[in-house]
């Protein structure tokens, strides 16, 4: 049976126990790639290099994918090649990273909210649209719900996609740090710490603020980074 239309998948599913069961199926690995892709263009610092990642792309490595999916090297490479041959992804690798581009990413992410496209809705009445009076209260409520959903959507940041910030949170942090490169450096620290230690935080926005405040209180001496790290 073939089903038409589409559904929204919340990225936090990747942190759920049902998603962490390994090894992944090919279908699960494909959905995982789509969820790892950036929903908008982004920049971050990798070593001494400023990397720009476009919408539908993300930075990873074969080793990271092997660990995420519970696969061996041969199976991982064969699957990525299969996706390339079928025109589903474009993969570019160098010594530092692997960049994966989801072809036709917008097809899988028609809307950045949880609403379906208007064309997918069915009419619930036979009465002509022109004869139906607008419900002002419903319109206002829908607009408020839309605004709330947009604020709750978390975008992935960092090389390992471990930092989740909403557009509003990113904007507030940028106002605090002024310089985007400084904010990207804090994102990098939290991202790498979460990747290395398997840590998760309820709010990466609060974590970045907490870490930066603690560093501001420290004397300006050469103190290893790990002494500044605390859980948010």
- What kind of sheet is the major sheet? 3 strands, antiparallel
Strand order, main sheet: write it out: 3-5-4
- End-to-end Cα distance, whole Å, is 47 Å
Number of domains: 2
- Can you identify the CATH superfamily of the largest domain? Winged helix-like DNA-binding domain superfamily/Winged helix DNA-binding domain
What is the correct CATH architecture of the largest domain?
Orthogonal Bundle
Q: State Rg.
A: 21 Å
Helix-strand string: HEEEHHEEHHEEHHH
Q: Under CATH, the topology of the largest domain is which?
A: Arc Repressor Mutant, subunit A
Structural class: alpha+beta
Mean pLDDT: 77
Number of helices: 8
Tell me what the structure shows:
This protein has 232 residues and is of the alpha+beta class. It has 2 domains: 11-108, Winged helix-like DNA-binding domain superfamily/Winged helix DNA-binding domain (Arc Repressor Mutant, subunit A, Orthogonal Bundle); 155-227, no CATH class. Helices cover 41% and strands 13% of the residues. It contains 8 helices and 7 strands, in the order H-E-E-E-H-H-E-E-H-H-E-E-H-H-H. The strands form 3 sheets. Strands 3-5-4 form a 3-stranded antiparallel sheet. Mean pLDDT is 77; it is low at 111-133.
């Amino acid at each position: 049976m073939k089903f038409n239309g589409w559904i929204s998948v919340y990225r936090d599913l990747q942190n759920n126990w049902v998603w962490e069961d390994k090894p992944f199926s090919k279908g699960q690995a494909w959905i995982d790639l789509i969820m790892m892709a950036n929903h908008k263009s982004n920049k971050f610092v990798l070593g001494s290099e400023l990397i720009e990642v476009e919408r539908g792309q993300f930075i990873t490595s074969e080793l990271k994918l092997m660990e995420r999916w519970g696969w061996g090297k041969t199976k991982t490479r064969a699957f990525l090649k299969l996706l390339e041959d079928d025109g589903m992804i474009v993969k570019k690798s160098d010594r530092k990273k692997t960049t994966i581009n989801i072809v036709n990413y917008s097809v899988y992410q028609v809307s950045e909210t949880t609403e379906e496209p208007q064309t997918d809705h069915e009419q619930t009445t036979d009465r002509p649209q022109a004869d139906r009076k607008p419900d002002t209260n419903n319109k206002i409520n829908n607009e408020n719900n839309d605004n709330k959903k947009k604020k709750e959507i978390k975008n992935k940041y960092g090389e390992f996609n471990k930092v989740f910030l909403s557009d509003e949170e990113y904007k507030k942090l940028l106002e605090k740090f002024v310089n985007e490169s400084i904010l990207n450096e804090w994102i990098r620290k939290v991202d790498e710490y979460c990747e290395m230690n398997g840590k998760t935080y309820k709010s990466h926005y609060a974590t970045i603020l907490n870490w930066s405040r603690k560093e501001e209180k420290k004397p300006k001496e050469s103190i290893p980074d790990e002494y500044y790290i605390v859980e948010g």
